[in-house]
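Technical appendix A lists one of the benchmark inputs used to test multi-chain prediction within the project. The record comprises two sequence entries:
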Amino acid sequence: MQANFDFQAWTAARLLTVEQALERWVPAQAPAGLGDAMRYAVLDGGKRLRPLLVLAAREAVAQSVPDAALDEAALRAACAVELIHAYSLVHDDMPCMDNDVLRRGKPTVHVKFGEAAALLAGDALQALAFELLTPDDTSIPVAVQLRLCQRLARASGHAGMAGGQAIDLASVGVALNEAQLRQMHRLKTGALLEGSVLLGADCALQPAAAWPALQTYAQALGIAFQVVDDVLDVVSDAATLGKTVGKDAANDKPTFVSIMGLERSRAYAQELLAQALQALDQSGLTRTAALRALAHMVVNRNN
Amino acid sequence: MQANFDFQAWTAARLLTVEQALERWVPAQAPAGLGDAMRYAVLDGGKRLRPLLVLAAREAVAQSVPDAALDEAALRAACAVELIHAYSLVHDDMPCMDNDVLRRGKPTVHVKFGEAAALLAGDALQALAFELLTPDDTSIPVAVQLRLCQRLARASGHAGMAGGQAIDLASVGVALNEAQLRQMHRLKTGALLEGSVLLGADCALQPAAAWPALQTYAQALGIAFQVVDDVLDVVSDAATLGKTVGKDAANDKPTFVSIMGLERSRAYAQELLAQALQALDQSGLTRTAALRALAHMVVNRNN
């Protein structure tokens, strides 16, 4: 265990690094305003939970000998997963999907730049994620770069995030049971959260022995994230949440709260937190303080 | 030179392989109808020009010793680039972009499945392209897989196809000159056509010495493709072309024909063909018959 771990200082330092990297890597010079829309979608907003998970997992599996190339790989993976998350929000907010006009307290990308530009910016952000993972930087081991591409593509695609969104789309007005709802979220939000943890664990010369424990941690965290989201959609207000509230009920979308009720949902989130922490306890990893603190943050957040 | 090259037989054999691979790799089982929309967008249609370019370039740079792993890499690259092309068409056809209802003689994806499903299917096809390039197949050299990911991401993103689409979007009703028009198409269509040729050349154990010649070939071909597209948009009919005609003029979009006139555009396409063939002549490569025939096909096609 890490004594005297200062989560606030840890987070502040990593957020600074991630923001600077995104500022550098999301191109201002992309043609015809495309760069502006891409940067608007990514910069200056967001909790950066996925990048923090990548970096925390990388630190948990790191050898005691520093390795700048693997740190660079982890930073690239952290930014790449955030680009995938950002593109999914841009497309999700469009009129043909959730038709949301407010995101992180700002007008959504299609409101600000128009629908066509939002569509293209999302598409270009997805490509940019894979560009970040494949730099002209020969110091990062080729096998690590390839593993990151492989993991991110699968977490994003039909068997991951996009598949979960398709289930979500098909589930409006449909009575899902709890198992079906969990399956939807396991893909829709869970795949990328789980992917974040495993991308961090991929930034090692050897596949991490603690991989199954990290997967258990990540899967519990992914479901917990969505349960808490559903709770906040009911109990919070737009100013705190930074986005439209009560939309799921208005859209007749099934949620954990609509199926389990508010109090059982809250208790379920705490159970999942306990599962995630227990997985870390049994992982054999010693530097898990950041992963533990992130799990607490996900479950006990208010926005 | 290859004596007695039978282009028709060459094409038929490769198309069969590509169609079977796409049939296998574009997942029917993706959740909630997502697979149906993805397969509708990709299967049973299209000239497969980009996959043919990948395979022709791979054959041009191949060693005399057969290499099944590199053949597999080329087939994966051929399908991946077609998935990127297919996703771009799905998104391009959407109401917020070109609002097209007819593609390859069939209703477009959003007409058939709805806009939200079309948006998601396009997103999932882009991810699938990178999944195809990163299989759990350890026989393909890791460095080759990584080079393919790197090349495809750049050809698709803000400095490639998506960037060109952004210029296209911004150019409606704007008086572009010939150089600006060429720059737009160098990205919008050219980047992926050029990428196809270079993806094929990447499927080799050593970077191909003929790389610069192949790039010259591919760049000339990319522009020629668009010049011919603009000519066909004016002179063809919907039945031959399989899509709505005269849309560029109706949308007040600049084209090679609107800037150069019809006859100069036709002559320009032939000049570009000559440039492409000359680059192959000077490449030092001996098995270029398929690349030569494909260039002829692009310039002298009628749909």
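Chain A touches chain B through 54 residues (CB under 8 Å). Residues 267 and 273 of chain A are 10 Å apart (CA to CA). Comparable benchmark entries are summarised in Table A2.
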